[in-house]
Amino acid sequence: RHVSLSLARTLRSGVYRVGFDGDFEAVIRACATEPRRGVRSTWISEGLVAAYLDLARAGHAHSVECWQDGRLVGGVYGVAIGAFFAGESMFHRADDASKVALHGLDRHLAARGFRLFDCQMVTPVTRALGAVEIPRDDYLARLEHAVGLPDRW
């Protein structure tokens, strides 16, 4: 797992605090209403928000929040099944905040023995944090193994 020098500096600075499952609804709503640069809307509808809130209440969907001075400035959410985590979306309102949240999520998953973290798209940000594309057959084999393991969250 690689951490860039600039992200390492941000992590060491202590400017952000990372939390888990503290405000799932705020994270998913921020992802739904704050599209990425150059994108006019997101795929996250009110119906999806409601469904994910149900999943969170049932203990299957989780959020990672990045806080600065008591304010939510970044986050990521997704679904955990066994030792598999599917990251769904992330947002940021401050420099590096989504990267800090993603890094926190990656460390959380590694510490709990997750076998597969699907970040959905290998982007410059996810690649810098260690994401790699894997062949479909390999992915499906890893997925089958990971979801068959006991819950790890």
SS strand fraction: 15-25%
Regions with pLDDT < 50 over 5+ consecutive residues? none
* Total number of beta strands: 5
Helix content: 40-55%
Distance between the termini: 20 Å
Could you say which overall geometry the principal axes of the C-alpha atoms support? globular
Average of the residue pLDDT scores: 90
Seen as an oligomer or otherwise, the chain set is: single chain
Structural class determined from secondary elements = alpha+beta
Q: What's the story with the biggest beta sheet?
A: 5 strands, mixed
**CA-atom Rg in angstroms:** 15 Å
The strand order across the widest sheet is 1-2-3-4-5
Encode the helix/strand succession as letters.
HEHHEEEHEHH
Summed up, the helix count is 6
Task: Provide a compact summary of the structure.
Helices cover 41% and strands 23% of the residues. It is of the alpha+beta class and 153 residues long.
What does it look like?
By secondary structure, the chain is an alpha+beta fold. It contains six helices and five strands. β4, α4 and β5 form a beta-alpha-beta unit. α2 packs antiparallel against α3. It is globular. The two termini are 20 Å apart.
